[in-house]
What does this fold into?
Amino acid sequence: MQRLYCKGCKKFQQQAYKYKACSKDINESIGKLVCEGVGIRSAARILGIAATTVMKKIKAIAASIAKPAIPMDRKCFELDELRTFVRRKRNECWVAYAICSHTKQVVDFIVGRRSKRTLKMITGTLLLSGVETVKTDKLNIYKSLIPAERHKASAYCINSIERNNLNLRTHLKRLSRKTICFSKSREMLEACLKIYFWKNKLLSGVHQR
It folds into this structure.
C-alpha cells in the first residue's frame, strides 16, 4: 500500500490501512468482548490483531472511563469481597466492591488484600457519601471501620451482591473458580473490572479517544 507524504504536517499517511487494529470501532469491539468474558488471546484471534495490541487497547479503554460519583441520596449500600489470583495461585487477591441496594449498580471497587487498610479505602468513601446503612457479611474487620449505627452485618442482608458475585464469575473468565485463566497482572484485572462494572460509560469513553 502506497504511503503518501504530507508537506504541511510532515507525516506519512495511507489511503487505506490493512491492519484491523486501526479501524474506528476496534475499541468498542474489544470492550464488548471483555464484558462477555473473552480472554486476551481469544479476542486477538476473533479480531485478527495481536494479543499485545488487545492488552494495550483494554488499558486505554479503562483509562478513558471515569469513575462515577457516588450518589448522595442513597440509603443503603451492600459491600462484599471476591477472591481471585494474580500471576499465580499462591498470590491470593481480593476484589472488594459495593453496590447500591436500590439500583444494583456498582458504585466503587478496590483490588488488594483483604486487610483493614484495603477495606478502609472503600468503606471510607461510602461513609463520606452520607449513606444511612452499609450492609456487609460478618467479617470482623468491618466492625472497626463502620459505625455501629450505620452498619448491618448478616449473611442474609447482602443477597443482591452475592448474586452479582455469581454473575461476575460467569461473565469474566479470569474470575471463574477452578481455572487457569486468572489475571497475570493486577493492572489488567482492574482494567477489565472497570470496563465490566461501568460499561454504560464505555461508548462515551471510546469516542473521546
User: Anything to note?
Assistant: The CA atoms of residues 39 and 185 lie 14 Å apart.
